[in-house]
Amino acid sequence: MRIRLLVPVAMLLLAAGAAGAQIPSITLFGGAVMPTGDASNGLNAGFTVGGALDMHVPVMPIGLRAEGSYARFGMQGLGGTGITAHTSDLGFNLNAVVTVLPLPLFHPYITAGPSYSNLKVSASDGTNSGSQSEGHWGYNAGGGIDFGLGPIGMRLDARYKHISVNGSSWTSVPLTLGFRF
Predict the structure, then answer these.
(1) How confident is the model at residue 150 (pLDDT cuts 50, 70, 90)?
(2) Most-buried pick from 84, 136, 145, 176 (CB within 10 A)?
(3) Cα gap 36→39, rounded to integer Å
């Protein structure tokens, strides 16, 4: 009788220990980023690259993601002037990630959290160059699908990023593809 009780109790203890362990994963991502709002009036679509560290408990639908990214946008209306210019966004996010539907091969999720961006404008006329940068806080929210591919996973993600800038805002929509290790 005692042996029959020991096996289920031992299995429950092992499962509880495994569930309490946080599993970290690293994602490297890249993709396109579209300026929106006021930013879309002077900027072209650009690119973004970055990395993320995810922490989650295996049986829980919520986790934590820390991200760092770099985005670069070309400026519109400079053709024929001899001036080249671009805007960049070096950003950091700390997000909650909620798995909406834990299916066997893919996991749709929603994510949101605070963002910090160092926005920089750089210009050159071939002889002279200059830049100016400022740091600002905001938020990001979006969602995606995480695919399990054995030891390497893949993530498709779309976000809305809103940064408050001196009574106005800087908004963009990054669309990324990432590989999780």
Answers:
(1) confident
(2) 176
(3) 6
Name the DSSP letter for residue 43. Answer: B
Q: What amino acid occupies position 45? A: A
CB–CB of 77/41 below 8 Å?
no
CA–CA separation, 50 and 67 (whole Å): 7
Question: How high is the pLDDT of residue 10?
Answer: 43
Tokens 């980023």 belong to residue = 33
Question: How many CB atoms within 10 Å of residue 82?
Answer: 10
- In sequence order, the 6+-apart residues with CB closer than 8 A to the CB of 80 are none
Q: What is the DSSP letter of 42?
A: T
Q: Output the six-digit token pair for 4.
A: 């029959």
pLDDT in tens, 34-71: 999 988 888 999 999 999 999 988 778 899 999 999 99
Residue pair 130/96 in contact (Cβ under 8 Å)? The answer is no
